[in-house]
Amino acid sequence: MVLFWSVLGASIGSALLPLINIEAILAVAVSQAPSHAWGLVVAATVGQMLGKVLWYWGGMHVERAPWVNRQLQKPKAKASLDTWHERAEGRPWFTAGLLFASAFSGFPPYAVTAVLAGVLRVPMWIFLVTGTLGRGLRFWVVVYGASSILGLFS
After folding, report:
1. What parts of the sequence cross the membrane (predicted)?
2. What is the C-alpha separation between 154 and 147, in angstroms, rounded?
3. Which domain holds residue 64?
4. pTM metric for this prediction
5. Number of folded domains in the chain?
């Protein structure tokens, strides 16, 4: 149980500070408790999404910051943001696909995508569903890979 809570906490930290590598932590955790692999995947996924929701929320409110507001008034930045609004608006499958791809692959970085989703006012449920599925699948792949390399489930 301690390992579950440790992975959950590390995952939240990793979501907020991308320098913390949750994939490496998860691989080590699974090597210590292979019978709890699915629980550790759930802990990592939930923790990541708790942290990413904070990035999303920050994106929703980033325009309130005077410096950011001034930057967004510049023609080039405004045009770029308008382009992203046009791409996302009325195209929920495109938006969901981009969020899922980022959550699963890490490209573009999911923290950046989370902020952009907040700025673009992507519905929270789309952000949560795509992020949870993408992160969960990513962590399952990490666990499966680690267990294959270490021979944990043979």
Report:
1. 6-30, 37-57, 107-129, 136-153
2. 9
3. 2-150
4. 0.85
5. 1
